[in-house]
Design goal:
The structure holds two protein chains of two kinds. Chain A has eleven helices and 14 strands. By secondary structure, chain A is of the alpha/beta class. In chain A, strands 6-7-8-3-9-10 form a six-stranded mixed sheet, sandwiched between helices. Chain A has a four-stranded antiparallel sheet with strand order 2-1-4-5. A four-stranded antiparallel sheet of chain A has the order 12-13-11-14. In chain A, α3 packs across α4 and α4 packs across α5. The longest helix of chain A has 15 residues. Chain A starts with a strand and ends with a helix. In chain A, 43% of the residues are buried. Chain B is mainly alpha-helical. In chain B, α8 packs across α10. The chains are: A alpha/beta, B mainly alpha. The interface between A and B is medium-sized, with 30 and 21 residues.
């Protein structure tokens, strides 16, 4: 099946600044693509071009097979879009606003009513339907934006920072919503909250300075972390030197470093030589030598570190 | 075509309701009706003239519009751009043309409502005498056309900026120039240093000249074409502005 979202060689400059410099990507049904990057990396600009709001200097984008510039109505009818900051008409109530969107999307009166009701309940707006949007809290405003985007159950959903400004419960709710819809749609979610990528995304794309610098699953990205698969061991300070020396003799271990020293305990980190974790070998060693270790676990690495490494090294 | 009208209608409906969501509508309608009346009776000398017509009423409409129409037009696009809703609007399955027509129609209908609310003066003049109601109808139409042309210009300028105050001032200034371009004082200045053809061209752009013709009861084709083509041109410029500036 053809990809639901396809972008080819998107480029956009604003005066002397190249905001997006040749971004190509495809998203298939069932995929949730996490779009990551530092502020100003070109995330929003890319999304604006994919949705057809901004015209790229070169390159093209299509949604559900329809080019966003040459067949805009066909493309936009298949698209649900939550723009950055979740803008909505402040002088309307959520019900009036969603009814307007439903009408523009061509639903007849009874169908529109059913869809508005459904969107309100899915986005959890029940308690504020008759308040003007400008009087709502940030979290509710964002949910009005989400409701508007999912109202017509579009096959393609693009959301620019859907959980920005939400409290942990609301974040959880929005993520649940995304996970629930994921199997039937192609979704792009931009964020700079990295835990979100692990929570909802099947794939992550990191962009920096307008270019894609990494593309893979969260697991792929984690594998790039220096301490991915490393063994973390907490031992009493007195034994630290001996244990550290023993660990260095294990064939699978590239090196041992001291991570922290606290209250008479030392945390050591054994870095693996290859992608394979040295967990088994370390376990053997501990049993063989009857080492007195207090805690052992395999580190996964942190997306934050990977993110920093990728985006900072590109800057250097 | 049917889809264009349908979508423009949905946009217009929302926009029109938007005027009434804030005190703007009430303030505008009250002031418009009060001022048109006040001008007709006190400055125009409605009673002193002793004539059964509404000349003194209609004569001041273009001047009132200078102040009031930019206030109606300024929010049309500037507010969309400022609040970011333009991104929402332009990613809905509608064309820019539909949005532009819808917004303009809503604002024009709003001015139309204001004009309709001045009906007591029409009743008054009919009670007091036997006016030529044909001229009054034509005059209302002329007034409506002037307002439409101002609005279209205002909508275009509103699309150029995020700032409603700038939109207001620029629109008022441009409309002022268009109103006064046929007046002696402007023409004398122009004639002194430009060829006659330039002065004549400027004079032919005068809203006042065309409007006065209509209020005398003469609705000629070229006056109609004049106002409608200004509206069409301004709306076209509006479309270009919306397309160019939405990103900034």
């Amino acid at each position: 099946m053809a990809p639901l979202i396809k972008a080819t060689g998107l480029r956009k400059t604003f005066g002397p600044i190249t905001a997006v410099d040749g971004i190509s990507l495809t998203v298939n049904k069932g995929e949730v693509l996490g779009f990551l990057g530092p502020n100003g990396a070109g995330k929003s600009t890319t999304m604006k071009m994919i949705t057809g709001f901004l015209e790229p200097d070169s390159g093209s984008a299509s949604i559900f097979g329809a080019d966003v510039l040459t067949a805009p109505k066909a493309a936009k009818s298949k698209l649900g879009y939550l723009p950055e900051g979740a803008p909505a008409y402040g002088d309307m109530t959520p019900t009036a606003f969603l009814s307007f969107v439903a009408e523009i999307r061509g639903f007849d009166a009874s169908d529109a009513k059913a869809r508005v009701t459904a969107a309100i309940s899915r986005a959890g707006l029940g308690s504020v339907v008759n308040q003007r949007i400008e009087t709502l809290s940030k979290g509710f405003k964002r949910r009005v934006g989400v409701a508007q985007a999912i109202l017509h159950d579009p096959p393609v959903l693009i959301m620019d920072e859907p959980t920005d400004g939400l409290d942990p419960n609301q974040k959880h709710h929005v993520r649940e919503l995304i996970r629930e819809m994921a199997p039937h749609k192609a979704i792009i979610v931009s964020t700079h909250i990295l835990e979100e990528v692990e929570a909802v995304c099947t794939r992550a794309v990191i962009i920096n300075k307008g270019r894609i610098v990494a593309d893979g699953t969260a697991e792929d990205l984690l594998r790039r972390a220096r301490n991915h698969g490393a063994i973390s061991i907490r031992v009493p300070e007195a034994d630290a030197a001996r244990i550290s020396k023993l660990l260095s003799t294990v064939a699978e271990i590239a090196g041992v470093e001291t991570v922290e020293k606290a209250n008479g305990h030392i945390r050591l980190r054994a870095l693996p030589k290859t992608a394979a974790s040295p967990a088994a070998a370390v376990g053997d060693l501990i049993r063989r030598e009857s080492l007195s270790v207090e805690e052992v676990y395999v580190e996964r690495g942190k997306l934050d570190d990977v993110f920093r490494e990728i985006t900072m090294s590109a800057q250097a | 075509m049917r889809e264009t009208i349908k979508n423009a209608y949905i946009i217009a409906k929302r926009e029109f309701a938007g005027y009434f969501a804030t005190p703007l509508a009430a303030v505008f309608l009250t002031i418009f009706v009060a001022l048109t009346g006040a001008f007709a009776f006190f400055i125009g000398g409605f009673f002193q003239r002793g004539q059964a017509n509404l000349d003194s009423f209609f004569a001041y409409h273009p001047w009132l519009y200078l102040l009031l129409v930019p206030a109606v037009a300024m929010r049309l696009w500037a507010e969309e751009r400022k609040s970011g809703t333009i991104e929402l609007l332009m990613t809905l399955p509608i064309s820019p043309t539909e949005a532009i027509l819808g917004k303009f129609a809503a604002a024009w209908a709003f001015i139309g409502l204001a004009l309709i609310l001045t009906f007591p003066i029409w009743i008054t003049v009919n009670v007091l005498g036997n006016p030529d109601n044909g001229i009054i109808v034509t005059s209302y139409l002329g007034s409506f056309l002037v307002a439409g042309a101002f609005l279209a210009i205002g909508a275009f300028i509103s699309a150029l900026t995020k700032n409603q105050v700038i939109a207001f001032i620029l629109t008022a200034t441009v409309c002022f120039l268009l109103v006064t371009s046929g007046m002696e004082i402007v023409q004398n200045v122009l004639r002194s240093w430009t060829p006659r053809i330039v002065a004549d061209a400027v004079a032919s752009m005068s809203f006042l000249t065309h409007y006065e013709e209509i209020t005398r009861g003469v609705l000629s084709l070229d006056t109609l074409v004049f106002f409608l083509s200004i509206i069409a041109f301004a709306l076209f410029a509006n479309a270009v502005a919306v397309g160019q500036k939405k990103s900034a």
